[in-house]
Amino acid sequence: MAAALLAHAKEIRDDGFIVEMVVWELPEPLPPCRHRYKYRLFFGTGDRCWVRIHAVSTISGSTRSCSISRWA
Question: Counting C-beta atoms within 10 Å of the first and last residue's C-beta, which end of the chain has fewer, N or C?
Fold first, then answer.
């Protein structure tokens, strides 16, 4: 089962901050979710992450995780 890339946007702002969003559509939902999407959002600089949100899954294996991280 391969994920299809739906959206990828990355902006490097004049103030040096990076904003990136990536969304994939999966062939079927991965439990416990009922939706068929996985995603990654990032806000930070080249050397510092302020907010990172990602839902990561290994479709062919058993690893499924979701985490939200914030650094000041």
Answer: C
Q: How many residues does the chain have?
A: 72
Q: In what order do the strands lie in the sheet with 64-70?
A: 4-12, 18-25, 37-44, 49-57, 64-70
Backbone phi and psi for residue 51, each to the nearest 5 degrees, phi listed first: -145, 130
pLDDT for 36-47, tens place per residue?
988 888 888 888
- pLDDT computed for residue 34 by the predictor: 84
C-alpha 68/C-alpha 63 separation (Å) is 17
Contacts of 8 (CB under 8 A, 6+ apart): 20, 21, 22, 23
